């Protein structure tokens, strides 16, 4: 059964750094059952996470890590120990990793190899490492993501596909899914109107088409992500939850 979680980026860096427990309470009040959060925030609040989980019932679904930070950690025992301690405390299910724009897609073969190394390093925690795309990897073709899947698919590496970026890149959704499934393990939804982040379902990229296309995949998690909002984040999160919930019906 697909469950709904929220990327906490909507609340902005100031609130995340100073009032993360209140952000989690907002997410749960909006209707979600889980959160996706930057690793550094989970690290900062690691002592409070068990109490927050007991209080709210939240699931810390995923930690988002920078590629260079993750690569450094798996090559350093002290850093790796800290990383694993935070992930163990938060009980995250996934570690998501992104990578900056590259003119040569062959670079992504090496990215996939690093993700495989990370998967092995974190394997005793039962965590799955996923690559999270933006628009630049798929603007012209799907070669970058295919390279990651070719290297890591058999090792458990998957894709956390951002379908908002996919639509903005004007990909053919059916071809996109057909080319990358079953490597697609996790879905992000964001929306745009005139290239600005907006609440889900209020943009001009046809996000409802992505929801309909993803539903048959029966993924464990759909994630709402809105990088910026004009009003109160909890209000936007509530509307984002309602949009995704309707998509599941």
Structural description of this entry:
- This protein has a single domain, classed as Alpha-Beta Barrel (TIM Barrel), CATH 3.20.20.
- Helix content is 48%, strand content 20%.
- The chain has eleven helices and ten strands.
- The protein has helices at residues 12-30, 39-44, 49-56, 67-74, 77-90, 107-122, 143-152, 163-168, 173-180, 207-214, 233-248, and strands at residues 3-7, 34-38, 59-66, 94-98, 128-132, 158-162, 184-189, 191-193, 196-198, 221-224.
- The strands form two sheets. The chain has an eight-stranded parallel barrel, surrounded by six helices.
- The longest helix has 19 residues, at 12-30.
- The radius of gyration is 17 Å and the shape is globular.
Helix and strand arrangement:
Elements: E1 3-7, H1 12-30, E2 34-38, H2 39-44, H3 49-56, E3 59-66, H4 67-74, H5 77-90, E4 94-98, H6 107-122, E5 128-132, H7 143-152, E6 158-162, H8 163-168, H9 173-180, E7 184-189, E8 191-193, E9 196-198, H10 207-214, E10 221-224, H11 233-248
Parallel strand pairs: 1-2, 1-10, 2-3, 3-4, 4-5, 5-6, 6-7, 7-10
Antiparallel strand pairs: 8-9
Helix pairs in contact: 1-11, 4-6, 6-7
